Amino acid sequence: MAKLTKRNVDALKSNAKSEAFIWDGELRGFGVRVKPSGSKAFLIQYRNAENRTRRLVLGPYGVLTVEIARDMARQRLTEVAQGKDPSAERQAVRAGMTVSEICDWYLEAAEVGTILGRNRRPIKASSLQMDRSRIATHIKPLIGSRLISGLKLGDIETMQADIAKGKSVKTAKKKGRGGRSKGGAGVASRTISTFRALLGHAARHNIIETNPATGVRQLAVAKRKRRLGAAEIGRLGATMREVAQNGEHPTALAAIRLMLLTGFRRMEVLGLQAEWVSRTDHCVYFPDTKSGEQVRVVGEAAIECIEAQTTGSPSRFVFPADIGTCHFIGVVRVLSRVCAKAKLEGVTPHVLRHTFASVAGDLGFSELTIAGLLGHAARGVTQNYIHLDAALVVAAERVSLEIATLLDGGQGSLSVVHIRRPPGYRVNDAVEREAEKGAGVRIVAAR
């Protein structure tokens, strides 16, 4: 056997049915393993004092170079020669780790970006903040002292039931901003999802042997169905005009209006920057969203709302904070005050997003088109020129106009909307039929 080098490690091919190995010809017991998935890791193989064959993974190829791995292997094999069993020692350490210690490892590793989340990217700060909250509020108070080695599937499902009943929040101390958790099925299900994911990361990084949450059954959570009807949108608009005259925060009211006109998420609206908006292409370019980089089409009413905010403003944010250079943050409180005055219950920023989608459905647009408008589908998400997708432009224009009409006191669906086709539009019969589904929509040639 030849000496292990980067070249022969790179050349090692995976086997679809089993693991493959190559061993170093210079240092006996040192080698590299490739799994059927294609992942490669350095390891040592030796016999312990009981003459049993043991393997110890040193680390993944790519993180470790061949030279570093060889030095680590030499050190571990020296320990073996001295009568030690490094594999058993590692297992003993893992067996003694508590749930709290695993959670702390996860948070530290995710903080520095060594754990990859969705789309194989480092976990976002906003997601990590939620994970940290669930760990501190629910996981640690209930099972933080338990050993991972003794954790069973039933223990995790019992924790889920306790969270749903509100048992964890009785002892957890409130930290940071936001309201106190009251438990419930939704909170319990999301907490279990977080716990299962972090244990999966720990198993993949060889911190624990297996993920004890594999196969856990999460509580079914009823989908949120609250939306604003036409009359409620009109009442919300009338109340917004009334409170604006009485001194309610104009930036917050404009942000609420834009959420309704676009279906954007709360932080997509509040963090919106003027340079991301293109009137020519009817779109907003988001460098980063919950689903990554996206381009979203918007209607004329939404563009007008944005331009009203940015005209003469020195801030890079469409909705700037009153003090400092950051964006506005108090929209939820203002929305609560406005809805209380309008006698509208259960209205959140997500309800505004759902209302936009529901209005689009009422107007006859397809689920695929609505998903594209909301950023749920690939359609229209990564195109460089969003105006080439005429169906999305038509839908955004029609839906935003309908909602704007209702907000401003009109009845909606009263007039034919003529949407001009910019140069470069590729409109076929299918797109025309999709456009016709939007009540009163006609695509006409540009002048």
TrEMBL record:
GO terms for molecular function: DNA binding. InterPro entries: DNA_brk_join_enz, Integrase-like_cat_sf, Integrase_catalytic, Integrase_DNA-bd_sf, Integrase_DNA_bind_dom, Integrase_recombinase_N, Phage_Integrase. Keywords: DNA integration, DNA recombination, DNA-binding. It holds the Pfam family Arm-DNA-bind_3. Residues 223-398 form the Tyr recombinase domain. One of its GO terms (biological process) is DNA recombination. Belongs to the 'phage' integrase family. This is Site-specific integrase. It comes from Gluconacetobacter tumulicola.
